[in-house]
Structure formats: C-alpha cells, structure tokens
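Risk register update: the risk of archive-format incompatibility is retired. Evidence:
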Amino acid sequence: MKPALPPDGAPLLHTASTAPFEPYAVERMTPEQERVYLASQWQLMWWKFRKHRLAVISGVFIILMYLTVIFAEFLAPYHYTTRNTDFIRAPRQEVHLFHEGRFLGPFVYPYTQRLNMENLKREYDIDRSRPQPIRFFCRGDDYDFWRLVPGNLHLVCPPKDGTLFLLGTDRLGRDMLSRIIYGGRISLSIGLLGVGVSFILGVIIGGIAGYYGGKIDLFIQRVIEIVQSLPHIPLWLALASIMPPSWSPLLVYFGITMILGLMDWTGLARAVRSKLLSLREEDYVVAAQLMGAKPARIIGLHLVPGFMSHLIASATITVPKTILGETALSFLGLGLRPPITSWGVMLNEAQNVNVVALYPWLLYPVVPVILIILAFNFLGDGLRDAADPYR
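Archived output:
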C-alpha cells in the first residue's frame, strides 16, 4: 500500500536526523577493522603470508642457506681444494660427546687405514681409544674471502694432527662438507642471476607486447610460442656444448647463467602482457599519456609497480628451475667445470653406479638440491597466495 500524500500546500514529511553530522562516525569500526582498513597492500600481503606456515619456514631456510654460502670460507672446515691424500673416499666421521661415560664435548674418533689386498679397496677402521676434540673459532686453511680479504679463521676446524670429515671425502681426498658449502655459492647465485636475466627480458618484452598490442603483440606472442615449443634440455645441451673449452671458469659461469636466463623469460613475459592489457586503459595511464610521458616511463613507473607482487611470486617459482638446469648441465659434464665447484659438478662424480654403491656419501650433494628446490616452491606458493591479499 502506497503512503498517503500530504494535502496540497502542506510541507513534505522527511526523516532527516537533527543530530550533529559526524562524517567519520557513520559506522564505528573496531580497532582491528580500522587496522586492516588503513593497511597498505604490502602490509596485507605480509599478514596473509605469515599465515602460510610452510612458506615462512621455507623463507627462513632459504635465508639461512644464502647466509651460509656468503660466509662459506668461514663456515667450511677446509678449503674446497684441500686434498687429504691419505684419506681418499673416506667415510664420514660421527661427532660424539661422551667417551667411556665421561663428557668430553664434541669430538671424533680418528681413522686407521688399511688396503684390502683381495679387492684393492681402502678400508677405514675407527680407533675408539683416542678421542680427538673438535676445535672452534680456530686457524685453519688459508683463503681469500670473496677473493678480496685474506684470512684463515674458521668456525670449525679438525683436531690437531687429526681429521674432520663429517660427510666423508671424494676421490681426491677432499672434504665433502666443505665442497658442498662452497658449491652452494655457485648453484644458488646462478639461480638468482638466471632469474634476474629472465625477469628483465620478461618485463621488457611482455611490457612492449601488452602496452602496444596489435601487430607488435601478435609478433611477440608467436616468438614466445616458438621458444616454448623448443625442448629445454636438448637446447641447453646444444648451447652449453658450443662454449669453447678454452674459456675461463668465470666466463663459463656467466655463459651458463645467460643460457638458463634466456630460456625462462617466456612465462613471465606473458604474465606481464596480460596485466598490461587490462591496465593500459586505466585513467591514470591516460593521464600520463596526455601529460607527455613516454611509454618506457609509463610501463616502468606506473604499470609494472601495480603488479610487482605477482612478478616477485612468479620469479620465486622460477629460481628452482634455474638451479635444476645448472645441476643437470654440470652433472652431464656440459656445464661448469673444475676447478669451479657446484652441486652439479660434485654429482658428476656420482654417475658411476658401482662407485655410488661402494661410496654412497658421494650422493650427499643431491640433498641440498632437493631441499632448496622444495623450499623455493613452498615459498613461491605462499607468495602467490599473498600477492592477492583481497581474495
């Protein structure tokens, strides 16, 4: 039923409140609601990322791994080139705290070596009568910290007149743990540098395709499809095999980085293109164009920062692919070569199944590879969920 209208000439009824107007008191928010309402996008991302416990643990693990390889010279018991010719392919030494019921602190039992004349194999026996205390913050092998500062201070050193092979030794008597720590510097840095190359190419090429569209976009998309259709591993092998053997280890390092970076930019380029296609018609982009801003400035300062969180998540997921690529190339003998050491170079010695059966500790470098790849994948999942905090 419609309400009755007032008679002609009578004032219209209204329901306006006579209370003083308070623009910020229309709806009272709790402190928690106000905190969320006033938070920036990066704060919302951080709050959502913290709820992903596995991603947080993975992030902490990755930070610790990178800190470890940064201070590899200090943390490794030996220099990665130090050879112990009396202990070739020696098994790992276990750390003990108690000897015959007495607490002695961290120590190891020394090896006694003998040659088995039946199979000509070196065999090592543990001498449990002579505990050898492990030294901490001690002087050991000389090194050049990042090839800049000479030093010989180590966190852990072998006992005096003793050895400390926590993960065993390789065919040249080099400590496996020290080489894994040094090798992580190469493998992890190639992951970041390779992703940096692909990130730059993806943003530039994807930005051009998404901003201009039309025939330029059509041409770039066909190029991306051609690159994606090529099998990556055979192409990696082909590109790595054309590097001259006379190249220095540093040139080989940068060559492998460029090869890995040039193969992983296509997915990021398409992500950038799709975002720019949806954002290029926004009012602030049109305003920048009317003010005379150049396309490079619009893309770099106005469009890309708007979805930088998505780019970071995509780049994080790409890092393990690059690490796996370097490991695969070095494992096959087409990547990095000695004297540079990486996890892939170390695994190259484990190609022979018979050797692995006799000396299984040669496979230890695969453990950090698996852990770091899982950590990056979990971190990428957490960042990808947190990149859209309003979902």
